[in-house]
Amino acid sequence: MSFDVPDDLRYLESHEWVRVSGDTAEVGITAFAQDELGDVVFVELPEEGAELTAGEDFGVVESIKAVSDVYAPVSGTVTAVNDRLRDEPELLNEDPFGDGWMLEVEIADESDELLSPAAYRDQIE
Description:
This protein is an alpha+beta fold and 125 residues long. The chain has a single domain (10-124), classed as CATH 2.40.50.100. 18% of the residues lie in helices and 39% in strands. The chain is built from four helices and nine strands, in the order E-E-E-H-E-E-E-E-E-H-H-E-H. Strands 1-2-3-9-8-5 form a six-stranded antiparallel beta sheet. A hairpin with a 4-residue loop joins strand 1 and strand 2. The longest helix is centred in the last third of the chain and has 8 residues, at 117-124. It is globular, with a radius of gyration of 13 Å. The mean pLDDT is 96. Keywords: Lipoyl. Its cofactor is (R)-lipoate.
């Protein structure tokens, strides 16, 4: 099975993605991650203003199969949270790289652990 791995993103080995635009980053989980989890039923995210540290957990995704921590690909301050996920956690399954985004972060520092799309494809294949 082949999963969508957009070329404009960077990835963590733990299956989070980051889309960097200037000093802002959008963060979510990958198509591979949502497939492994199965149907997502609950998402716990930090509040706006929370400080994230790259490589540390910032939230939880709960599915019918498992509960999984979600890790920050960048350090910085949360500037927006996708509130739709509170009522529509299935957006993570339906559109993990679009409507299923989780956070926007003002970047203080990027993780040294970010993978290129090619390296992430190698990991999941």
